[in-house]
Design brief:
Length: 450
């Protein structure tokens, strides 16, 4: 498939890296020569130096034969104009990254339908929704939902006190009994593996679990994660009252969190107070620990740092952790700070580039893929696919099929029923299947279900 990407920033580079690794024919256009050279040197793609909103540059990049066009520069107007030009060349799928609320808000004058653009993705909205979703999943540092929320993909960190520490997958299978889940992957020292029966879970590992949403309480019990009392609402602190912080607060209000939002700007605090119904807005610095203590930071269920400054987010997160917040979630924009933050004791790091890229990737897939989720710090992905009636694997047990190495089926959903698959499981037409796949297995998984 021929894919043309405009913008070699964080989101553009990430998309190029993923798509080029899957052997798509990727062309990247950017006016910044240094960024373009970096992508050219590291990735298997064609780089064109030029203006992405110029028909001349796009023709040089091969717009006439492009299947998918993605504009992800830092300027909304450039992305919109570039897509409009690509539309004139009859490109079927058009994707634009936008930050301005005028393009993406409900009832916007320039909606994606009026513009003829397949997807308008706002990274700030995407990352705010992801943070709110993870905040509602106690103990998890990563969450993705599939099959209309029925199947959950959750990441948990293993410490030396975890009941799973030093167990093999076979031993875990023998003792788990009523617990219906599958460990799809383990990350260890930057490497991601799909575990087999003899693989051991060590302290410091991160495990990724597939489970039905009904089975989450049992998994929490197995992992001995400290639960939240049902007699009170969860208490959350949000640092930063920008677009991201406001959207997180709105989401947590819907989940009945007892929420406090902190911002240093008095006028912004007044605006936030008018927009939020059940959130206490506090005018203070995030590092003003005395104010945080007065408001009950000790014992708070979650502290979310969501300002525009990565360093401030990390520092304030560590202060909140030191003063008794149970769980820390931090917004990190710079990739080089992402891995550092997680080593400092921050429970959850979330990246706008991954949230935006994850939303974009599902528009560039072939075959019967319904949705895609990405994992920060790993090239692995989770795919949701629908089994078609004419697929060669229908009505055959999985043990008789050559399922691709580097991938694992985590769950099968059939109507209102679901199962954690075994070798005897049989796929039927209409089934929704959720698969974890390492980079080299993407194309093979697509072929398996074709």
């Amino acid at each position: 498939m021929k894919i043309l990407i405009v913008g070699a920033g964080q989101v553009g580079y990430f998309l190029c890296e993923r798509l080029a690794a899957e052997n798509h024919e990727v062309t990247l256009v950017d006016s910044n020569e240094d960024q373009l050279l970096r992508a050219r040197d590291r990735l298997n793609l064609l780089g064109i130096l030029g203006n992405g909103a110029s028909a001349e540059s796009l023709e040089q990049a091969g717009i006439k034969t492009t299947d998918i066009f993605i504009a992800v520069t830092d300027l909304d107007e450039v992305n919109i104009l570039a897509c409009l030009i690509a539309r004139e060349y009859h490109v079927k799928t058009l994707v634009a990254r936008v930050k301005s609320i005028e393009y993406s808000s409900h009832g916007a004058i320039l909606s994606k339908e009026k513009l003829g653009i397949s997807l308008l993705i706002n990274p700030e909205d995407a990352v705010a929704d992801e943070i709110a979703k993870i905040a509602c999943r106690h103990g998890a540092f990563d969450v993705a939902e599939f099959v209309d929320g029925q199947i959950q993909f959750l990441g948990y960190r293993i410490n030396e006190d975890s009941p799973l520490c030093d167990l093999t997958l076979k031993e875990l299978g023998d003792i788990r009994g009523m617990y219906r889940f599958v460990i799809a992957a383990i990350t260890r020292k930057g490497q991601t593996i799909i575990p087999r029966g003899d693989d051991i879970i060590y302290s410091g590992d991160s495990i990724f679990v597939f489970a039905h949403h009904k089975d989450l309480p049992a998994i929490q019990y197995l992992l001995k994660l400290e639960g939240v009392s049902h007699s009170r609402s969860q208490r959350a602190f949000i640092l930063g009252g920008g677009r991201i912080g406001l959207r997180i607060a709105e989401q947590l209000e819907k989940q009945k969190f007892n929420t406090r939002l902190i911002d240093r700007d008095m006028k912004r605090c007044e605006t936030l107070s008018a927009k939020l119904k059940n959130t206490l807005v506090i005018h203070a610095e995030g590092s003003d620990i005395h104010t945080l203590q007065d408001e009950g930071i000790e014992g708070a269920d979650v502290f979310i740092a969501a300002t525009e400054n990565d360093e401030s987010n990390i520092l304030c997160s560590l202060l909140a952790k030191q003063h008794g917040a149970k769980r820390i979630m931090t917004l990190i924009n710079q990739p080089e700070l992402f891995s550092l933050a997680s080593t400092l004791g921050i429970d959850v790091c979330v990246s706008p580039r991954i949230a935006a890229a994850g939303a974009i990737l599902k528009y560039v897939r072939r075959g019967d893929i319904v949705s895609v989720a990405t994992i920060e710090g790993s090239n692995s992905e989770i795919l949701e696919l629908e089994v078609k009636a004419d697929c060669a694997i229908v009505n055959l047990p999985l043990k008789d099929l050559s399922f691709p190495r580097g991938a694992v089926i985590g769950a099968i959903v059939r109507g209102k029923e679901y199962e954690i698959p075994t070798g005897d499981s049989i796929l039927t037409a209409g089934d929704r299947v959720v698969v974890f796949a390492l980079p080299g297995a993407f194309a093979k998984v697509e072929g398996f279900f074709s």
